[in-house]
Design a protein that fits this description.
This protein is an alpha+beta fold and 309 residues long. The chain has 7 helices and 6 strands. The chain is 31% helix and 14% strand. A hairpin with an 8-residue loop joins β2 and β3. The chain binds a DNA duplex (14 and 14 nucleotides) through α3, β2 and β3.
Length: 309
DNA sequence: ATGATTTGACCATA
DNA sequence: TATGGTCAAATCAT
C-alpha cells in the first residue's frame, strides 16, 4: 500500500506515544490515589506493584514508539523469501547470493512488534510461551545490556516455510520483565491449531515435570538444570497444574495457545505491547496479523484478556 | 537416532 | 569499525 507514507507512520507513532503518555499519566494518578488510601493489606501491595510495573512498561513503550519514529523505512521486498531453505550448508554463498532477494541477515521488511512480559518471580519465567513453537538459534550479549538476547525462529521454518522469529531479552532494570520482539508472521499451521481456550478448559500443553523441579523449559527442552544461569530457560506454571503432565504434543515442542496473551502465562503478565508495523506488503496473512496486532492495541481487548494475568 | 540448544565465528549494517 | 543477527558444528536431551 502506497497509502501509508513515512510521514503517516510518523504521525501514527507519535499518536501512539501520546496515547501511551496519557495512560501513563492515568497510572500515575491511580498510583497516587492508592498511595493516599494507603492500604497495608496484600491487595494494596499487589496493586501498587502492578501499577508500578505498568508504569515502567508504559515508559518503555513510549520510548520505543518515539525511537521508532525515526526508524528508516525499508522498501518492500520479496517478503519471506527463504533466503536459505533448509540447513543451508553453503553458508557463505548463501548470504551474498541471497541479497538478490533483498533479505539476508536482517529482516527489515517484515512486520515487527514488541511486547513486554512480567513474571512473578525470577524462577517463574514463562514469557516465551506465546502459543507457538520456537527453536532457539542464537544468543548474544548486547552492548550495554545486562542480560543476553536470545534469538528464536519458528520450529516449522523449514517444513512449512514459516519465517516468524522473535528475540527475547530480560530487561536491564527489572529481571522480572522480559522484552519480546516479534518479527514476521506465522504462516505455519500453528496459527489455526492453537487457541486460547486450551487454558480455559484447563488443558495444559506445556512440557512440565511432574515433580516440579527446575529443569525443563518451554523453548529449551534440552536445557540442563541451569535455572537462572540461562535467562531463556523458561518454565511457566499453569493455573491448573493438575491436568498438565501429559501433552497432546510431541515432547520438545512449546505448545500453548494464543500468541501474546497466552493462557499458560497465568502467572505472567503482559505488561506492555508496542506496535512497530512495517506496512510494506499486504498479503492476507499479514493483514490477519495486523488485525491481531490492532487487537493488542485495543485497551478493551487488553483488559479483557487481563483475566489471564 | 533424532531433534534441540550452545556457542564461536561469520557477515551485513550503521 | 563496532555491533547485532545468523549460521553451523559440537553437544546434550529424549
Amino acid at each position: 500500500m502506497e497509502g501509508s507514507s513515512s510521514s503517516d507512520r510518523y504521525t501514527e507513532r507519535c499518536a501512539l506515544a501520546t496515547e501511551l503518555a496519557q495512560v501513563l499519566d492515568a497510572v500515575r494518578q491511580l498510583e497516587a490515589h492508592m498511595g493516599v488510601k494507603g492500604g497495608s493489606d496484600d491487595g494494596g501491595e499487589r496493586c501498587r506493584a502492578l501499577v508500578s510495573s505498568m508504569r515502567s512498561s508504559i515508559d518503555r513503550s513510549i520510548h520505543i514508539a518515539m525511537s521508532s519514529c525515526c526508524a528508516p523505512e525499508s522498501p518492500p521486498s520479496a517478503e519471506g523469501s527463504p533466503r536459505s531453505g533448509g540447513s543451508d550448508q553453503a553458508a557463505d554463498s548463501r548470504c551474498r547470493g541471497a541479497n538478490a532477494a533483498g533479505q539476508c541477515k536482517k529482516r527489515k521488511a517484515l512486520p515487527k512488534w514488541s511486547t513486554q512480559v512480567r513474571v512473578n518471580s525470577v524462577q517463574d519465567v514463562g514469557p516465551l510461551d506465546d502459543g507457538f513453537s520456537w527453536r532457539k538459534y542464537g544468543q548474544k550479549d548486547i552492548l550495554g545490556a545486562k542480560y543476553p538476547r536470545a534469538y528464536f525462529r519458528c520450529t516449522y521454518r523449514h517444513t512449512q516455510s514459516c519465517h516468524a522469529s522473535k528475540q527475547v531479552q530480560r530487561a536491564d532494570g527489572d529481571p522480572l520483565l522480559f522484552d519480546v520482539v516479534y518479527h514476521g508472521n506465522h504462516t505455519c499451521a500453528q496459527r489455526s491449531s492453537q487457541r486460547p481456550r486450551h487454558a480455559a478448559s484447563g488443558e495444559h500443553s506445556q512440557p512440565q515435570t511432574a515433580d516440579g523441579q527446575e529443569r525443563s523449559s518451554i523453548v529449551s527442552p534440552g536445557l540442563k538444570a541451569e535455572g537462572l544461569e540461562n535467562p531463556f530457560s523458561f518454565q511457566c506454571k499453569p493455573a491448573d497444574a493438575g491436568s498438565a503432565a501429559s501433552s497432546d504434543f510431541p515432547a520438545g515442542y512449546a505448545i500453548t495457545a494464543s500468541p501474546f496473551v497466552s493462557p499458560a502465562m497465568s502467572e505472567c503478565q503482559v505488561v506492555g505491547n508496542v506496535l512497530d508495523v512495517e506496512l510494506t506488503s499486504t498479503t492476507d496473512s499479514q493483514m490477519a496479523d495486523m488485525d491481531f496486532m490492532l487487537q493488542l492495541a485495543d485497551p478493551d481487548y487488553f483488559l479483557d484478556n487481563s483475566r489471564y494475568f
